[in-house]
């Protein structure tokens, strides 16, 4: 596998991880054992977002890109790939922290339901 393909594989892994951090709590409602995978992922995702750090997968991806003769990028994975899609232009640091806090709050609610042995209320039909 060449370095460009390895960089793309890291992007795919990184995207899957971010998606799991965001929606993994909902998967816990389906299979409770997923909680043991999601809680550390959620903690790491919240830590990276709240502290403004860069996930180690980003430098790994950039290293593969540069070794393959491709351009790397500055900043983190979310800033480079997801912010243009998910967040409006000019996202501020306080807004990023607020989004992380919303993510944590929603997951706390889901885990409270799981620990009580309940499911979320069904949609009105």
What does this structure look like?
- The protein is mainly alpha-helical.
- It has helices at about 5-30, 35-50, 55-65, 75-85, 95-115.
- α1 crosses α2 (about 35-50), α1 packs antiparallel against α3 and α1 crosses α5 (about 95-115).
- The longest helix is centred in the first third of the chain and has 28 residues, at about 5-30.
- The protein is flat.
Q: Roughly what fraction of the amino acids lie in strands?
A: under 5%
Query: Alpha-carbon distance between the termini?
Result: 51 Å
Shape: flat
Secondary-structure-derived class: mainly alpha
Give helix and strand order, one letter per element, not per position. Answer: HHHHH
Rg, nearest Å? 17 Å
Mean pLDDT: 79
Percentage of residues in helical conformation: over 70%
Model regions low in confidence, pLDDT < 50 over at least 5 residues: none
What is the count of helical runs?
5
How many strands in all? 0
Largest sheet: none
In short:
The protein is mostly helical and 125 residues long.
What attributes does this structure have?
mainly alpha; about 70% helix; about 120 residues
List the helices and strands and how they pair.
Layout: H1 3-30, H2 35-51, H3 57-67, H4 77-86, H5 93-115
Helix pairs in contact: 1-2, 1-3, 1-5, 2-5
């Amino acid at each position: 596998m060449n370095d460009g393909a390895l960089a793309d594989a890291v992007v795919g892994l990184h995207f899957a991880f971010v998606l799991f951090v965001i929606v993994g709590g909902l998967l816990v409602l389906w299979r409770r054992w997923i909680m043991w995978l999601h809680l550390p992922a959620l903690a790491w995702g919240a830590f990276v977002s709240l502290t403004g750090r860069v996930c180690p997968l980003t430098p790994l991806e950039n290293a593969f890109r540069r070794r393959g003769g491709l351009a790397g990028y500055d900043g983190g994975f979310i800033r480079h790939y997801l912010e243009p899609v998910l967040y409006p232009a000019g996202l501020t640091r306080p807004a990023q922290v607020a989004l992380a806090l919303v993510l944590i709050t929603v997951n706390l609610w889901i885990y409270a339901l799981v620990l009580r042995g309940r499911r979320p209320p069904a949609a009105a039909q």
